[in-house]
Amino acid sequence: MEAEQFTVRFAAPEDDPAIAALVVEGFLDKFRPVFGGRMDRSLKVMEKWVSLEHASGGVTSLVVEGYSTVELAASVGVRTAPSRDDVLARGLWRALTRNLGLPRAVWATTLLSYPRYSHTSSEAYVERLVVSPPFRRQGMARRLLAAAEDFARDAGKETVGLHVSGNNLSALRLYEAEGYVETARQRSFLTAYFLGTKNWLYLKKTL
Ligand SMILES: CC(C)(COP(=O)(O)OP(=O)(O)OC[C@H]1O[C@@H](n2cnc3c(N)ncnc32)[C@H](O)[C@@H]1OP(=O)(O)O)[C@@H](O)C(=O)NCCC(=O)NCCS
Q1: Ligand 1, from 6, 117, 136: best to mutate by most atoms within 8 Å of Cβ?
Q2: How much distance in Å is there from the Cα of 23 to the middle of ligand 1?
Q3: Which residues fall within 8 angstroms of residue 125, CB to CB, at 6 or more apart?
Q4: What are phi and psi of 131, to 5 degrees?
Q5: pLDDT of 88-146, one tens digit each?
Q6: Could you report the per-residue pLDDT of 163-193, keeping only the tens digit for each?
Q7: Please, are residues 195 and 30 in contact by the beta-carbon 8 Å criterion?
Q8: How far is the CA of 184 from the centre of ligand 1 (A)?
Q9: Residues with CB under 6 A from ligand 1
Q10: Predicted TM-score (pTM) of this structure
Q11: 3-state secondary structure the chain
Q12: I need a surface site. Which of 19, 96, 148, 176 has the fewest CB within 10 A?
């Protein structure tokens, strides 16, 4: 089945748990070191994170329905407004301490603070683009990215930016093919050691 045959739509609040599940599944290599022996709690924390982003983070999510309307095959978040950082940070901290305990919450907060992002009013920010493994290589990410760009354009943005880890070759190929170019790079020895990612690239596309 081709990506065009699947439905892309805006996420509804009921989609938050399914989006969280897609993100945990798609970024397991990043979440395992963060959650350690508490991996079973990662879904709860991510669900809270996604709903906080929607409520206070200036983020709108787009999703692709799978073979039925209740199943999601892919999702992406698009930030078009500044977040209420205090609300986001407090909510996430509460979810982390409740689910992981204080020491692990401190550790998780440290690792999850990479890559660092700051909002620019003329730029939309694409985040947590993820396609469920059985649906990959069918053009879904490309389609979702195009929908995110349309949404950014409609919101009056001139550019779209995103972060990608330097060793995520499949994502890098996708972004480069779609016209994104590297404009900045952050290096972290902490994430190099614990997450296997030393370079976080910032890519940008003019709409
Ligand atoms: C990266 C990801 C989103 C790609 O999703 P996808 O739906 O399989 O991608 P598409 O089918 O739209 O592929 C578009 C292009 O990306 C590149 N690409 C995608 N997967 C690739 C792979 N495994 N190897 C090499 N190139 C790849 C290709 O250039 C491809 O074009 P082509 O099929 O015409 O050759 C998916 O692999 C994923 O969810 N990975 C885990 C989460 C993640 O890393 N997200 C990106 C965060 S920055």
Answers
A1: 136
A2: 15
A3: 78, 79, 117, 119, 160, 161, 162
A4: -125, 130
A5: 889 999 999 999 999 999 999 988 888 888 889 999 999 999 999 999 999 999 999 99
A6: 999 999 999 999 999 999 999 999 999 989 8
A7: yes
A8: 22
A9: 26-27, 129-131, 136-142, 164, 168, 170-171, 173-174, 177
A10: 0.94
A11: CCHHHCCEEECCHHHHHHHHHHHHHHCHHHHHHHHHHHHHHHHHHHHHHHHHHHHHCCEEEEEEECCCCCCEEEEEEEECCCCCHHHHHHHHHHHHHHHHCHHHHHHHHHHHCCCCCCCCCCEEEEEEEEECHHHCCCCHHHHHHHHHHHHHHHCCCCEEEEEEECCCHHHHHHHHHCCCEEEEEEECHHHHHHHCCCEEEEEEEEC
A12: 176
User: Per the structure block, which two tokens stand in for 165?
Assistant: 């880890």
